[in-house]
Design brief:
Layout: E1 11-14, E2 17-20, H1 21-35, H2 39-47, H3 50-60, E3 69-73, H4 79-88, E4 97-102, H5 105-117, E5 124-128, E6 141-147, H6 156-166, E7 167-178, H7 186-206, H8 209-221, H9 225-234, E8 238-245, E9 250-256
Parallel strand pairs: 3-4, 3-6, 4-5, 6-7
Antiparallel strand pairs: 1-2, 7-9, 8-9
Helix pairs in contact: 1-8, 2-7, 3-4, 7-8
């Protein structure tokens, strides 16, 4: 039995389905390949545009400074990278950079093209990578960010351990992710929106109800605030704190390498 997932060894969840661990990355990849070009529109519709405020607050409170090297995992949309760039202030000497990593090539292409259209090139690197096996030496980054991506990782404990490994001493790990709603009165409304409204919007806008049903299910299967805090601590991160946004619909987890 897998102690983290509570599933038989070798299996994990894909939404509400149990699947072999070896299949999850492919299945998640198919979802994000399907939704890549409509992802921004759908995010706006799913969150009524509030996802943009969550991301801005996430970066504004990140503590990222001029000259920092930042790894943005699951960052294929480019949203977080575009907000980080003015903070790291890349220069000709190579100080200040953002590496955008995502396991899905289609998401990376869409995000890179979008930022190229905005003239955002200098100080940005784009690379396809697996969060469970990061292609960087130990202690490479001042900060690692991951926004709305951890819930799609098959072995979250391995990804968190890798994040810890590539952080410099004193570096910060920041995870922005959907979490457990704290306000009881919101729960039925949130469930109705997630399971009745989102798949219909997905069908109308993106021609893909199933992918958006998976996204709603993946949120419910993601560890809650306290569980994820414990997982980050088990990965070696210290002084982990949690900040709920929008009554816990999303949460920011922050931890440090010491």
């Amino acid at each position: 039995m897998n102690e983290t997932t509570g599933k038989p060894a070798g299996t994990t969840h894909f939404g509400y389905r149990d699947v072999p661990e070896a299949d999850k990355a492919r299945l998640v990849g198919e979802v994000f390949t399907s939704v890549a070009r409509k992802y921004d529109i759908m995010n706006d519709l799913m969150s009524f545009g509030v996802h943009r405020l969550w991301k801005r607050y996430f970066v504004a409170t990140s503590g990222v400074r001029e000259g920092d090297a930042v790894l943005d995992l699951a960052g294929g949309t480019g949203d977080i990278a575009a907000l980080l760039l003015p903070k790291v202030r890349p220069n000709a000497a190579g100080s200040g950079r953002v590496v955008v990593g995502d396991i899905n090539g289609d998401m990376l292409r869409v995000g890179r093209d979008r930022l190229l259209d905005r003239g955002l090139v200098h100080g940005l690197d784009w690379s396809r990578m697996d969060a469970e096996a990061l292609p960087f030496p130990d202690r490479s980054f001042d900060c690692v960010t991951m926004a709305f991506g951890l819930r799609n990782v098959t072995r979250k404990e391995k990804a968190l351990a890798e994040i810890h490994r590539v952080l410099k001493i004193g570096g910060r790990a920041l995870v922005l992710e959907f979490s457990a709603v704290r306000a009881e009165f919101l729960k039925p409304l949130y469930d109705f929106h997630s399971f009745q409204v989102l798949p219909r919007i997905g069908s109308l806008i993106a021609g893909d109800a199933a992918s958006y049903r998976y996204l709603a299910e993946s949120i419910r299967k993601h560890p809650d605030q306290e569980t994820l805090k414990s997982m980050m601590e088990a990965a070696g991160l210290a002084r982990v704190d949690v900040r709920n946004l929008s009554a816990g619909i999303v949460a920011i987890h922050r931890g440090y390498r010491v």
